[in-house]
Amino acid sequence: MCVLSSLTRRLSARFIALVAFFAAAALFVAASAKAQNLGPDFGARGSDNMGSIELVDPKVLRVCADPNNLPFSNQAGQGFENKIAEFLAAKLGKDIAYSYYPGASGFVRNTLNAHLCDVIIGMPQGNDLIQPSNPYYRTSYAIVTRDGTELFGLASLDDPRLKEKPRRIGLVANTPPGNILARNSLLASVKPYPLMIDTRFDSSSAAMISDLESGDIDVAVLWGPIAGYYVKKSNAKLRAMPIADEKGAAMSFRIGFGVRHSDQNWKRELNQFIAQNEAGLQKILFDYGVPLIDEDGRPIAQPQ
Description:
Elements: H1 11-26, E1 60-65, E2 68-69, E3 73-74, H2 80-92, E4 95-100, H3 107-110, E5 119-124, E6 131-146, H4 161-164, E7 169-172, H5 177-183, E8 190-193, H6 204-214, E9 219-223, H7 224-233, E10 238-242, E11 252-259, H8 264-276, H9 278-287
Parallel strand pairs: 1-4, 1-5, 7-8, 7-9
Antiparallel strand pairs: 2-3, 5-11, 6-9, 6-10, 6-11
Helix pairs in contact: 1-5, 2-9
């Protein structure tokens, strides 16, 4: 992982490092990209202990989760994945318990595949470490801008206003929007934030939004659920706009539950829950500002 060690280096050195960093990132296809908060170990391959006994405890919904990664989950139960887990447990008539582990490399291996828990609440389709359920929402990366600026409401990284004058664009390193920025020769405008962090102590997303609010950057590019959460939470007037998919650069992903490859009956039970509770799931997501899109990439409006 290539991360700039100091933002006070000379401009030329920073530019060279950025070009080298994102040139590598631009070669990634969407299916293998380590997308920000698309789930621990996204794009990796692996296998669980085949022939497992489906559930650790049939009477308890045992959830694998990050202890400090809002808006997704935390130990206080404040994330939208916590709320979805509670909703699922209530519908299944089960108690709920958590196995917490930081959402970084090794998360699946040390939780779900270690049989400490039975479900990961939010995992992207395409992660081969787990068996995905049917998706229960689709979302995309988003552009966040601040009211009172000439870029407020910016909806595309192709917008010519990004080149009219020097800009500062916040981006989590090695995430798919970097490919679009590279195509538009905007790498020199990027202020990078680290992808792989210990969520118990740091948050690249919070740091980026703070920089946007203070004016240190002009635009923040974040994973949609994170962008929507901070827009709702911020005291400043911010707006998040979803980024459309482009050829060779997928910006949207379908998210479902993650279970062990051997747990076929459990997966079918989760699929039934999804089919029967679409409105309830969407309400939780809307409450947290998650920008939802349909299969044609159009925003789904929140019911009034």
